[in-house]
Model the fold of this input.
Amino acid sequence: MIDADDRDLPASMLYAYAALVDGHPYVNFTPSTGSALGGLRELAAETDVPHMGRDAKTGETLVKSAFAPMFAGRNLRMLAWEGHNILGNEDGLVLEDEANKAGKLASKGDVLESILPDIEHNRVRIDYTPSLADWKTAWTSSTSRAFSRRR
Done:
């Protein structure tokens, strides 16, 4: 794909390739493809260059990843989880594009689906606000109902 200058090649794979081919370790801190595909994993193995990661989760997604298992373990039935992310800078601008936003929303929403499969409402919003510059903020609202198990 690189030799053919394939325009569908994700930028994250190009970054991973550049690092690995030059012998530099690669850590992917995002949910993007990075070095996750076979050819790049093979390159890393052949050159003995460490690579790892696929989404270290930060901010609102980190909150979900930490709190959702805790709520489930305490028998709280999560009724709804609403996340609202407001971004400035290039991150927000890139996510104005519906295709880019769809991928980000799916990765943020999928976190809860795997932990709380019975959640009734799970929505994430991402909005771009240019005046925020490099500032990002996120709000999370969740509602639950305690339930008991009868024997």
About this structure: The domain at 59-146 is CATH 3.30.360.10 (Dihydrodipicolinate Reductase; domain 2). DSSP finds five helices and five strands in the chain.
